[in-house]
Structure formats: C-alpha cells, structure tokens
Design brief:
heterodimer, A: 16 helices, 72% helix, globular, B: 2 domains, four-stranded antiparallel beta sheet
C-alpha cells in the first residue's frame, strides 16, 4: 500500500493556496467600469512599460481580429468592449485550467478503457496508477459543471452565444448565425448534454474502479470480464460524447466558426496529456520505491505513446489549419487570422513545444527509457498543451486583452495542487498492483 | 583451412532462446542462428551489436526533406511561379502549408526506400543470390544454431547441446569459405 508522503501533501496544499491567491487577485484586479479601464490604460501609457501587457496588446489590436459584433468603433463602445474582455479574463483563466486538468483525468480514463477493451498485456501493472489519476474526474466534473452553470446564469460572459439578445429577432444585437444554431446551441440543452456526458463518464469510472478492486479478492475472472464489457461500451459512448463535448465546451466560444475535426483535435491533445501524466506519476511513484514490477520497458512504451500522440496531434492540427488556410473562406479563416495576428507567440510557440520538441527528444529509442528525459519532455508537452487550450479559448473570450499573468498562473497552480492532492490520496486507497488481473503476469515480465 | 561447425536444430523459439543463453554462458562461439521468423530478443541474447539502421533512417529522412524543399521551391516558385490557393505571394515560406504534405511524404519515402536498400547491401543480398541457409527446414518450423567447433571437444559440446534441448546435431566441415 502506498502512503502519502507528508511533503507531497504540504507541497500540493501550498500550490493550492498560492494559486488561490493568484486567482482571487485576478478577480479583484479586473475592472468593473469603463472609467477604470480608461484609468488603467492611461496609467499604462504614462508608465510606458511593456509589462502591463494587456493594454499594450490592445493598442494595436483595435479594429481587427475581433469576430464579435460589438466592435462598432466609437471610443465608448471600444472601452466597454475592452471592459468585457478584461472581466472575462479571470473567468477564462479559471475555466482553461479547470478544463485542462479535467481533460487529463478524462483522457486517462479513455486510455484505461482502451487497455481493458484491447486486453493489452503490457499495461496491467499500471492500472492502479491510471485509476488513481481518474479519481480526479469526479472532482473536476463538479467544478466544471459549476463553471458551466455560472456561465449559463450569466454570472460571467465567457460563452458569448448564451446572451439571449443574440437570438431575439427584435434586438439590435440579433445574430442570424447564432440564432440558426440555437436549436442545438441553447442553454437548457447545453446543460442537459453536459450533465449526461459527465454522468456517463463518472459512472464508468465508478464501476470500473469498483470491479477492479473486487477483482483483487475474486476467485475467478468474473470482474475482469465485467470490466472488459463495460470498457468496450464506454469507449463507444466516449468517442461520441467527447466530440460533442469539445464543440460545446470549447468550439462554442467561437459560435460563428466550426471545424468538423475539432473533436478529434481535442481528443489528440487529451491523449498526449493523459499518457504523459501516467508516465510522470509512474516515475514519481517508482522514485519513491513503489511499483516494483514497473521496468524501463513500461516507461519506454509510455514514451512511445507520448511521441506517437504528439505526432497525431500535429497531424490533426495541421489538417485543420491547412484546409482552412488553403480555402481562405472568410468565416473560417478568421479563427486563424485572430490567432496569428494577436496570439503569435503562444500560437507558434505551442507548435514548437508540442511537435518539434517531443519529436526530436523522444525519437531515439534509448532516450525513451531514461526517466529524466521522459520527465523533461513530459513537462514541456503538458505546458504546450495548456497553451493549446489557452489558444482555443482566450481569443474568443478576451480577444487582444490577453496575457499569461496572475489569473492564468494562479489558476494553473491551484488546479495542479488540487490534482496532485486528489490523485496521490486516491493512490493510497488500494494496493498499487492489480494482482488478480489475468494479464498481470505478462505485464510483470513485459520487456522490449 | 578447414573449419568445423556444429549445427544444432531446435523446434521451439523459447527453447532456442534459453539454449543461446546457455551456450554463450559456456563461452562457445555462436556463428549464426537461422530462424523461420524474427525471434524477439534473440539479437540481445546473442550479444549482437545494436543496429545502426535507425541513424541512417534519420539521415535519409533529412535528405528526403531537403529534396522536397528544393524541388517544390524550383517547380512552384522559381521555374513557373504559381498562384497557390488565391494567394499569389510567390514566396516559399508563405506558401509552405501547401508543401508540407509533399515534404512529409518525401521524408518518409526516402527514409523507407533507402533504409531497405541499405539493409540489402549490408546483408549482401541481391536478386538471384543463392540462399545461404544450411537447412531448408529453417524456412518452415525449425531453428538452427551454428556453433564454431574450434578446438573444443566435439563430443562434449554435442552432449551439452542435447541438454539444452536440441533435437538434432550434425557436424559440418566446410573448407571453402573460411
């Protein structure tokens, strides 16, 4: 049995506290009136430093790159627009960080189900690690659902399309495109879908974990067979709901824009992060002297998945980008125009972090077996995919008023701390070896 | 000079693997092992040096990438400038997304084909070459280990090989090759 080291617990709680301070100050510093926005911008011009960033980006961001209909020009309208962006920023930062760690837990759950459904022989020694990580799923689901509810009840305005004015034909703000999509994209149906998806995933997580624990003391393979069946069923449910989830929770930030492979794209990013986190948690546990049966071939296999899914992610990223770039249809191309003009560094930086870096570092077979190499690449991959989610959300919610500052870093630290605390606490709840799994012997002897 | 080689035949890959390890423990020299299919881990058990084909593959990939870039730049930008996707910029870098599939394909093409050709040359294989396997059963379901008899006592080696699970042992004297 694993015992949670006190140091790790303190470490996680410190992260949560520091993160919470960052997050709260992000909310406190957000302006509440246009006067404050003017003051902040004026103050910035007097100081003339580049570090108060958000305004700086705005001075040249004016008048382009904005897909929302609010940009009528006119000074007051402009300040009000900036005000909305700056008010959205702490919420978006919170949403991105919360979604990022949610996506890791969900990705690990899908990976776990694949291992069961495929009856993979190499991975059963890692099952308890995966189960530990998916223990974060219920926590993350509650947080995410609360955030969606807050948006639905107009506590924040990060989901632009939720504004009822947009679908009201009488209103000045009537938006024909969004009204046309309102059969699918309306608040009640959106929440119902979210509830069904989250419930489905959490049910699978609950029963698979229960069967896996029961299997430890079982005399036959009854629970293993049950898990095999529900895993196969879950995967069918997952691939449909994951796709719709990505439209709902991410693509709908840009309600005019659409991409048919968006679900796959989000899925690829999710899987890279999931495998990376499995590898990192495994290496941490191994370094503490646990997981005696995990050898460097298991790490090698995880690193191969990190490498492979990084390329898969790039492939989908490029497939989406190239078709839109080539066709050059205004309603599609705005998505990338905004990102390349206003988000140049995160947009291209992410490609280096998520593609070039892992490809070059993990290409050599020997490097995939060196823990510090896998850890180093893993950290860059995770940061890169955070930036990827950042790029998917921020341009639509805060436009040019973006920066990676207090709210963003604070939210990341908070959720990182929470994730570590929940995952490592869950690891103490069951033996780290699923000892009665019929494939466990093969997994113990796995070598490449 | 004539050299003596002992051919030991096995009928199972697990037994063969253990036999290879045992033979190496006794410091007999294994000249070659003939198998009907690739046996996982056999190269490590025999103590063969790691393959360097991965390095050549990487280099060939870089060659392919360079060929693609130079070729597309000449064809689409310099020799007959093309208006690509309604964006007549006539610059390679600005039209790069359109060339990425070609760059990718030629990287893979060069890496794969040149790697196969390298493998053939390194293994001294060419069309109409006479097969080198000493026993045709190794192309079906038997495994053959060729051990250099050297100055060892043939009788002793044979007994040892039988103990490792060999089903058939023969002594071959060849005076042409060595």
């Amino acid at each position: 049995m694993y015992t949670l080291p006190n140091k790790l617990k303190v470490f996680a709680i410190v992260f949560m506290v520091v993160g919470a301070i960052g997050m709260i100050s992000g909310f406190l510093f957000a302006p509440s009136t246009t006067e404050e926005v003017k003051e902040m911008m004026a103050g910035h011009h007097e100081e003339g430093h580049g570090d108060t960033h958000s305004m700086e980006a705005d001075t040249h961001g004016e008048g382009h790159g904005d897909v929302k209909e609010e940009a009528h020009g006119g000074e007051d309208a402009h300040y009000e627009h900036v005000l909305h962006q700056m008010q959205n920023r702490p919420w978006s930062a919170l949403y991105i960080a919360s979604f990022f760690f949610f996506m890791i837990a969900l990705g690990v759950l899908a990976f776990y189900a694949i291992q069961y459904a495929a009856q993979a022989g190499w991975s059963p020694v890692l099952f308890r690690v995966m189960e530990g990580i998916t223990a974060y799923l219920p926590v993350a689901s509650v947080i995410l659902f609360v955030l969606l509810l807050l948006s639905a009840f107009h506590v924040n305005h990060i989901f632009h399309w939720m504004d009822p004015e947009l679908v009201n034909p009488e209103s000045d703000h009537y938006d024909e495109l969004i009204a046309g999509k309102s059969g699918f994209l309306n608040v009640p149906f959106f929440l119902i879908r979210a509830a069904i998806f989250l419930a489905g995933w959490n049910l699978y997580r609950y029963f698979s974990r229960k069967n896996s624990i029961a299997d430890d003391t079982a005399e036959d393979n009854r629970y293993y067979k049950k898990n095999f069946k529900i895993s196969a069923g879950f995967l069918v449910f997952f691939i449909v709901t994951e796709s719709i989830m990505s439209w709902d929770w991410i693509m709908s930030f840009d309600p005019h824009w659409f991409s048919t492979l968006f679900g796959w794209y989000v899925f690829a990013g999710m899987m890279v992060c999931a495998v990376t986190v499995i590898a990192l948690v495994t290496i941490v546990l191994k370094s503490q002297g646990y997981l005696e049966y995990v050898n460097d071939s298991h790490i090698h296999d995880l690193a191969k998945f990190m490498f492979g899914f990084s390329i898969f992610w790039t492939y989908l990223w490029f497939s989406q980008f190239m078709l839109i770039w080539y066709a050059d249809i205004p309603e599609e191309v705005t998505y990338f125009v905004t990102r390349i003009e206003d988000y140049k560094i995160p947009f291209f930086g992410m490609l280096a972090m998520n593609f070039i870096f892992p490809v070059l570092l993990l290409m050599n077979s020997d490097y995939k077996r060196m823990n510090w190499f896998v850890v180093m690449t893993g950290i860059v991959i995770l940061l890169g995919h955070y930036v990827d989610v950042f790029n998917m959300v921020m341009p639509a919610t805060v436009g040019t008023s973006w920066f990676i500052g207090l709210p963003e870093i604070g939210s990341m630290l908070f959720f990182f701390g929470l994730f570590v605390l929940v995952v490592f606490t869950a690891l103490t709840k069951a033996p780290l070896l699923a000892k009665n799994n019929p494939l466990i012997k093969e997994s113990k002897h796995f070598h490449y | 000079m004539a050299s003596k080689v002992i051919h030991a035949i096995y009928n199972d890959d697990d037994i063969l693997m253990n036999a290879v390890k045992a033979v190496r423990n006794e410091h007999y020299h294994i000249e070659e092992v003939y198998t009907p299919f690739p046996v996982h881990g056999l190269d490590k058990a025999m103590g063969l040096a790691d393959t360097r084909i991965a390095i050549t593959s990487f280099l060939y990939g870089l060659v392919g990438l360079s060929v693609a870039i130079v070729m597309m730049n000449y064809i689409m930008i310099e020799d007959w400038p093309q208006n690509i996707g309604g964006k007549p910029s006539f610059s390679y870098i600005e039209n790069m997304p359109a060339f990425v599939p070609i760059m990718f394909e030629l990287t893979v093409f060069f890496a794969a084909h040149l790697m196969v050709i390298t493998f053939y040359m390194r293994s001294k294989l060419w069309p109409f070459k006479k097969a080198e396997n000493p026993d045709v059963r190794t192309t079906d379901d038997h495994f053959l280990m060729a051990i250099d008899a050297g100055n060892n006592d043939i009788e002793k080696v044979s007994k040892f090989l039988v103990a490792t699970g060999a089903i058939e042992i023969s002594l071959i004297e060849n005076d042409d090759e060595h």
